[in-house]
Amino acid sequence: xxxxxxxxxxxxxxxxxxxxxxxxxxxxxxxxxxxxxxxxxxxxxxxxxxxxxxxxxxxxxxxxxxxxxxxxxxxxxxxxxxxxxxxxxxxxxxxxxxxxxxxxxxxxxxxxxxxxxxxxxxxxxxxxxxxxxxxxxxxxxxxxxxxxxxxxxxxxxxxxxxxxxxxxxxxxxxxxxxxxxxxxxxxxxxxxxxxxxxxxxxxxxxxxxxxxxxxxxxxxxxxxxxxxxxxxxxxxxxxxxxxxxxxxxxxxxxxxxxxxxxxxxxxxxxx
Length: 271
Description:
This protein is an alpha/beta fold. The protein has eleven helices and eight strands. The chain has helices spanning 7-20, 39-52, 69-72, 81-85, 116-133, 149-157, 169-182, 199-215, 234-241, 246-249, 254-269, and strands at 26-31, 57-62, 95-97, 103-106, 138-143, 160-165, 188-194, 223-230.
Protein backbone atom coordinates (compact mmCIF):
# COMPACT_ATOMS: atom_id res chain seq x y z
CA UNK A 1 0.00 0.00 0.00
CA UNK A 2 2.76 2.41 0.96
CA UNK A 3 4.46 1.92 -2.40
CA UNK A 4 1.36 3.30 -4.11
CA UNK A 5 1.90 6.74 -2.59
CA UNK A 6 2.28 9.32 -5.30
CA UNK A 7 5.60 10.67 -6.55
CA UNK A 8 4.45 14.01 -5.18
CA UNK A 9 4.29 12.54 -1.68
CA UNK A 10 7.85 11.22 -2.00
CA UNK A 11 8.99 14.68 -3.01
CA UNK A 12 7.18 15.96 0.05
CA UNK A 13 9.35 13.78 2.29
CA UNK A 14 12.55 15.14 0.78
CA UNK A 15 11.30 18.71 1.01
CA UNK A 16 10.24 18.31 4.64
CA UNK A 17 13.64 16.89 5.57
CA UNK A 18 15.38 19.76 3.83
CA UNK A 19 13.28 22.42 5.54
CA UNK A 20 13.29 20.67 8.91
CA UNK A 21 17.08 20.69 8.92
CA UNK A 22 16.93 24.51 8.81
CA UNK A 23 14.03 24.83 11.25
CA UNK A 24 13.78 24.32 14.99
CA UNK A 25 10.32 22.77 14.49
CA UNK A 26 10.26 18.99 14.84
CA UNK A 27 7.36 16.92 13.51
CA UNK A 28 5.64 14.29 15.65
CA UNK A 29 2.65 12.39 14.28
CA UNK A 30 0.23 10.55 16.55
CA UNK A 31 -1.68 7.90 14.66
CA UNK A 32 -3.62 4.66 15.01
CA UNK A 33 -4.70 1.94 12.67
CA UNK A 34 -8.12 1.75 14.32
CA UNK A 35 -10.50 4.51 15.34
CA UNK A 36 -11.91 4.81 18.84
CA UNK A 37 -8.68 4.11 20.75
CA UNK A 38 -8.46 7.59 22.30
CA UNK A 39 -5.84 9.01 19.94
CA UNK A 40 -7.17 12.57 19.73
CA UNK A 41 -7.73 12.84 23.49
CA UNK A 42 -4.15 11.75 24.10
CA UNK A 43 -2.89 14.14 21.41
CA UNK A 44 -4.48 17.17 23.08
CA UNK A 45 -3.11 16.23 26.49
CA UNK A 46 0.25 15.29 24.96
CA UNK A 47 0.49 18.84 23.60
CA UNK A 48 -0.26 20.34 27.00
CA UNK A 49 2.43 18.21 28.69
CA UNK A 50 4.99 19.19 26.04
CA UNK A 51 4.12 22.85 26.61
CA UNK A 52 4.46 22.40 30.38
CA UNK A 53 7.98 21.13 29.70
CA UNK A 54 8.80 24.38 27.94
CA UNK A 55 8.01 23.48 24.34
CA UNK A 56 6.01 25.74 22.05
CA UNK A 57 3.55 23.41 20.32
CA UNK A 58 1.35 23.67 17.24
CA UNK A 59 -1.28 20.94 17.00
CA UNK A 60 -2.52 20.12 13.49
CA UNK A 61 -5.84 18.28 13.32
CA UNK A 62 -5.21 16.31 10.14
CA UNK A 63 -8.24 14.06 10.39
CA UNK A 64 -9.66 15.09 7.02
CA UNK A 65 -13.44 15.06 7.30
CA UNK A 66 -13.85 14.06 10.95
CA UNK A 67 -11.95 16.48 13.16
CA UNK A 68 -12.59 16.97 16.88
CA UNK A 69 -9.59 18.62 18.52
CA UNK A 70 -11.39 21.96 18.63
CA UNK A 71 -13.94 20.26 20.88
CA UNK A 72 -11.26 18.88 23.19
CA UNK A 73 -9.60 22.30 23.42
CA UNK A 74 -13.02 23.97 23.72
CA UNK A 75 -12.44 26.48 20.94
CA UNK A 76 -14.86 27.55 18.23
CA UNK A 77 -12.78 28.22 15.12
CA UNK A 78 -14.01 30.68 12.53
CA UNK A 79 -11.33 29.47 10.14
CA UNK A 80 -10.06 25.91 9.78
CA UNK A 81 -7.62 23.77 7.83
CA UNK A 82 -10.29 23.39 5.16
CA UNK A 83 -10.22 27.12 4.44
CA UNK A 84 -6.49 26.81 3.86
CA UNK A 85 -6.86 23.70 1.69
CA UNK A 86 -9.37 25.54 -0.50
CA UNK A 87 -7.09 28.57 -0.80
CA UNK A 88 -9.46 30.87 1.12
CA UNK A 89 -7.15 31.67 4.03
CA UNK A 90 -3.45 32.09 4.72
CA UNK A 91 -1.68 29.95 7.31
CA UNK A 92 -1.46 32.75 9.88
CA UNK A 93 -5.25 33.12 9.86
CA UNK A 94 -5.97 29.49 10.77
CA UNK A 95 -3.56 29.18 13.72
CA UNK A 96 -5.69 29.44 16.86
CA UNK A 97 -4.94 30.16 20.50
CA UNK A 98 -6.21 27.26 22.63
CA UNK A 99 -6.15 29.12 25.92
CA UNK A 100 -3.34 26.86 27.15
CA UNK A 101 0.06 28.53 27.34
CA UNK A 102 2.28 27.70 24.34
CA UNK A 103 -0.31 25.44 22.68
CA UNK A 104 -1.77 26.56 19.34
CA UNK A 105 -4.16 24.68 17.07
CA UNK A 106 -4.97 24.34 13.40
CA UNK A 107 -8.51 23.00 13.58
CA UNK A 108 -9.99 20.61 11.08
CA UNK A 109 -13.66 20.18 10.30
CA UNK A 110 -16.24 17.47 9.75
CA UNK A 111 -17.91 16.33 6.56
CA UNK A 112 -15.16 17.63 4.30
CA UNK A 113 -14.08 15.92 1.09
CA UNK A 114 -10.87 16.90 -0.64
CA UNK A 115 -9.63 15.81 -4.04
CA UNK A 116 -6.85 13.31 -3.37
CA UNK A 117 -5.03 14.16 -6.58
CA UNK A 118 -4.37 17.64 -5.21
CA UNK A 119 -3.55 16.69 -1.63
CA UNK A 120 0.20 16.18 -2.04
CA UNK A 121 0.72 19.67 -3.40
CA UNK A 122 -1.39 21.33 -0.69
CA UNK A 123 0.12 19.33 2.17
CA UNK A 124 3.57 20.15 0.82
CA UNK A 125 2.79 23.84 0.99
CA UNK A 126 1.24 23.57 4.45
CA UNK A 127 4.18 21.79 6.07
CA UNK A 128 6.61 23.99 4.16
CA UNK A 129 5.01 27.12 5.59
CA UNK A 130 4.77 25.80 9.15
CA UNK A 131 8.42 24.78 9.24
CA UNK A 132 9.50 27.99 7.53
CA UNK A 133 7.83 30.01 10.29
CA UNK A 134 10.41 28.54 12.67
CA UNK A 135 8.04 29.64 15.43
CA UNK A 136 7.19 26.34 17.12
CA UNK A 137 9.37 23.70 18.76
CA UNK A 138 6.95 20.88 17.96
CA UNK A 139 4.42 20.37 15.19
CA UNK A 140 2.12 17.70 16.62
CA UNK A 141 0.01 16.06 13.91
CA UNK A 142 -3.13 14.16 14.87
CA UNK A 143 -3.78 11.95 11.86
CA UNK A 144 -7.06 10.33 10.99
CA UNK A 145 -7.62 6.69 11.90
CA UNK A 146 -6.91 4.01 9.34
CA UNK A 147 -4.32 3.86 6.60
CA UNK A 148 -5.81 6.02 3.87
CA UNK A 149 -3.79 8.24 1.56
CA UNK A 150 -4.08 11.32 3.77
CA UNK A 151 -2.71 9.44 6.78
CA UNK A 152 0.12 7.96 4.74
CA UNK A 153 1.21 11.34 3.42
CA UNK A 154 1.39 12.89 6.88
CA UNK A 155 3.28 9.89 8.23
CA UNK A 156 5.79 10.17 5.42
CA UNK A 157 6.44 13.73 6.56
CA UNK A 158 7.14 12.84 10.16
CA UNK A 159 10.45 12.06 11.77
CA UNK A 160 8.73 10.69 14.87
CA UNK A 161 5.59 8.52 14.75
CA UNK A 162 3.67 7.41 17.83
CA UNK A 163 0.99 4.76 17.36
CA UNK A 164 -1.79 4.67 19.95
CA UNK A 165 -3.51 1.32 20.33
CA UNK A 166 -5.33 -0.88 22.83
CA UNK A 167 -5.22 -4.57 23.59
CA UNK A 168 -8.38 -5.15 21.56
CA UNK A 169 -7.61 -7.81 18.88
CA UNK A 170 -8.91 -5.63 16.03
CA UNK A 171 -6.78 -2.71 17.22
CA UNK A 172 -3.70 -4.94 17.33
CA UNK A 173 -4.44 -6.27 13.84
CA UNK A 174 -4.62 -2.71 12.52
CA UNK A 175 -1.45 -1.80 14.43
CA UNK A 176 0.43 -4.60 12.69
CA UNK A 177 -0.87 -3.41 9.31
CA UNK A 178 0.43 0.06 10.18
CA UNK A 179 3.79 -1.40 11.17
CA UNK A 180 4.07 -3.32 7.89
CA UNK A 181 3.29 -0.19 5.92
CA UNK A 182 5.76 1.99 7.78
CA UNK A 183 8.57 -0.58 7.63
CA UNK A 184 8.79 0.03 3.88
CA UNK A 185 9.55 3.74 4.17
CA UNK A 186 10.48 4.63 7.75
CA UNK A 187 13.01 3.37 10.27
CA UNK A 188 11.03 3.20 13.53
CA UNK A 189 7.67 3.30 15.24
CA UNK A 190 6.83 4.13 18.85
CA UNK A 191 3.86 2.43 20.53
CA UNK A 192 1.64 3.54 23.41
CA UNK A 193 -1.10 1.31 24.82
CA UNK A 194 -4.22 3.17 25.91
CA UNK A 195 -6.86 1.74 28.30
CA UNK A 196 -4.21 -0.70 29.53
CA UNK A 197 -3.75 -0.95 33.28
CA UNK A 198 -0.36 -2.68 33.47
CA UNK A 199 2.87 -1.43 31.90
CA UNK A 200 4.06 -5.00 31.53
CA UNK A 201 1.11 -5.84 29.26
CA UNK A 202 2.46 -3.44 26.64
CA UNK A 203 5.94 -4.93 26.97
CA UNK A 204 4.64 -8.44 26.34
CA UNK A 205 2.49 -7.49 23.35
CA UNK A 206 5.19 -5.32 21.78
CA UNK A 207 7.68 -8.19 22.02
CA UNK A 208 5.14 -10.49 20.37
CA UNK A 209 4.65 -7.99 17.55
CA UNK A 210 8.42 -7.79 17.04
CA UNK A 211 8.66 -11.58 16.84
CA UNK A 212 5.81 -11.71 14.34
CA UNK A 213 7.53 -9.07 12.21
CA UNK A 214 10.74 -11.10 12.19
CA UNK A 215 8.84 -14.27 11.37
CA UNK A 216 7.20 -12.53 8.41
CA UNK A 217 10.60 -11.20 7.31
CA UNK A 218 9.77 -7.53 7.57
CA UNK A 219 12.58 -4.99 7.41
CA UNK A 220 15.01 -6.10 10.14
CA UNK A 221 16.35 -2.58 10.52
CA UNK A 222 12.90 -1.23 11.37
CA UNK A 223 12.67 -0.50 15.11
CA UNK A 224 9.53 -0.88 17.22
CA UNK A 225 9.80 0.87 20.59
CA UNK A 226 7.26 0.67 23.41
CA UNK A 227 7.06 3.96 25.35
CA UNK A 228 4.31 3.34 27.91
CA UNK A 229 0.71 2.69 28.84
CA UNK A 230 -2.30 4.76 29.86
CA UNK A 231 -4.90 3.16 32.15
CA UNK A 232 -8.64 3.71 31.87
CA UNK A 233 -9.84 6.49 34.17
CA UNK A 234 -13.07 8.30 34.93
CA UNK A 235 -11.02 11.52 34.95
CA UNK A 236 -10.51 11.21 31.20
CA UNK A 237 -14.20 10.70 30.46
CA UNK A 238 -15.22 13.53 32.78
CA UNK A 239 -12.84 16.13 31.35
CA UNK A 240 -13.62 15.16 27.75
CA UNK A 241 -17.34 15.75 28.34
CA UNK A 242 -16.51 19.14 29.86
CA UNK A 243 -14.15 19.98 26.98
CA UNK A 244 -11.15 20.17 29.27
CA UNK A 245 -7.77 18.40 29.41
CA UNK A 246 -7.27 15.73 32.05
CA UNK A 247 -3.55 16.51 32.28
CA UNK A 248 -4.45 20.07 33.30
CA UNK A 249 -7.42 19.34 35.57
CA UNK A 250 -6.03 16.21 37.25
CA UNK A 251 -2.29 16.76 37.46
CA UNK A 252 -1.76 14.05 40.10
CA UNK A 253 -4.03 11.44 38.52
CA UNK A 254 -2.36 8.18 37.50
CA UNK A 255 -3.27 8.68 33.82
CA UNK A 256 -1.59 12.11 33.77
CA UNK A 257 1.58 10.67 35.31
CA UNK A 258 1.50 7.78 32.84
CA UNK A 259 1.15 10.13 29.87
CA UNK A 260 4.00 12.26 31.22
CA UNK A 261 6.13 9.11 31.25
CA UNK A 262 5.16 8.41 27.63
CA UNK A 263 6.17 11.95 26.65
CA UNK A 264 9.47 11.67 28.55
CA UNK A 265 10.28 8.28 27.02
CA UNK A 266 9.53 9.54 23.52
CA UNK A 267 11.68 12.63 23.96
CA UNK A 268 14.52 10.58 25.47
CA UNK A 269 14.43 8.05 22.60
CA UNK A 270 14.62 10.85 20.04
CA UNK A 271 17.62 12.63 21.49
